[in-house]
Amino acid sequence: MNSNVRPADMVRITTPELAEKFIEEQVAAVREQVGDKKVLLALSGGVDSSVVAALLIKAIGKQLVNVHVNHGLMRKGESEQVIEVFRNQLDANLVYIDATDRFLDKLAGVAEPEKKRKIIGEEFVRVFEEESGKIEGISFLAQGTIYPDILESDGVKAHHNVGGLPEDFKFEGLVEPVKLLFKDEVRVVGKALGLPTEMVDRQPFPGPGLGVRCTGAITRDRLHALRESDAILREEFVKAGLDKEIWQFFTVVPDITSTGVKDGKRLDYWPVIIRAVNTVDAMHCTVPRIDWEILEKITERILSEVDGVCRVCYDMSPKPIATIEWE
Ligand code: XMP
């Protein structure tokens, strides 16, 4: 598949049978393209890179070297899941880099949102290049490019994901087996490859991760409160089946304190904001009505389980005027 244009008559992959056929064709194409050479993949744990990894593991097994960089801004349990699925279950070649300190040190004191994004993006490429430079004999670079990325990068809108192409591209070629697929098709293929549903049906997660939800200058303690409150929200939404109904949901811990009271003492604590949105195109969003009891349960759990938090708020703002993320 060399062309970057999706043929008008290409069948949409909507069933497991069509996915199987697609996988078979791509396995053959990848084997033909790379022969016995090694392929490198930046495996973030997002839908696209995970599906590409699973497909390439099927095609070339240990000739694929996956590199997972944990930038310290992942949600709770995400890097662990990447290791569990790819190293333990699929027996893949996985290099795991915990670069948390490096990213958080670089970000210390930086409050401006675009500057934070830039630091995270650049540092990601730097860590990936440094670590992949240590691996011998890599000939190809695999990428989880999907069709909307190609359409969007058509000189109109720069794709703002973390981990763009390394600057001095030193590979024989690119391996992009899902580049003509839309997101829903990638998910069908991922399921056919046996990836866990929570990985394949994962909601959008920004490249800069929790970095844009810990507003202003990131501190480790506030990032911890963000990660823990986000995990509680996800757990309770899954229990209530809301993960199937709501497009994207997460918590935010803004860079402000408000007054709390504990054991008769007044304390400066953070608020946690719950953000949940429904949308078709991410351009216009509505805010779903959540059952009051579910919100009460989440509030109770966050206030009793997460240190440093004294208040929980539900963000009622549609897009526009508010963006989905807080910064
Ligand atoms: P906004 O906040 O602009 O978000 O309404 C729209 C969608 O894009 C995601 N988003 C990002 N994704 N890198 C990404 O890969 C980013 O810097 C970024 N910022 C926002 C956001 O989560 C939402 O789904």
Counting H and I runs of at least 4 residues, what is the number of helices?
Answer: 10
Q: What topology, given as strand order, has the largest sheet?
A: 3-2-1-4-5
| Hetero ligands | xanthosine-5'-monophosphate
CATH architecture of the largest domain: 3-Layer(aba) Sandwich
- How many structural domains are formed by the residues? 2
CATH hierarchy class name of the largest domain: Alpha Beta
CATH topology of the largest domain: Rossmann fold
Number of strands: 10
Radius of gyration: 21 Å
CATH superfamily of the largest domain: HUPs
> What is the N-to-C order of secondary-structure elements (H for helix, E for strand)?
HEHEHEHHEHEHHHEEEEHE
Q: Which structural class fits the helix and strand makeup?
A: alpha/beta
Uncertain runs: 155-163
Biggest sheet overview: 5 strands, parallel
Could you explain how this protein is built, in words?
With 327 residues, the protein is an alpha/beta fold. It folds into 2 domains: 185 residues, Rossmann fold; 102 residues, GMP Synthetase, Chain A, domain 3 (2-Layer Sandwich). The strands form 2 sheets. A 5-stranded parallel beta sheet has the order 3-2-1-4-5, sandwiched between helices. Strands 6, 7, 8, 9 and 10 form a 5-stranded mixed beta sheet that branches. Strand 4, helix 6 and strand 5 form a beta-alpha-beta unit. Helix 2 packs across helix 7. About 3% of the residues have low confidence. Xanthosine-5'-monophosphate binds next to loops.
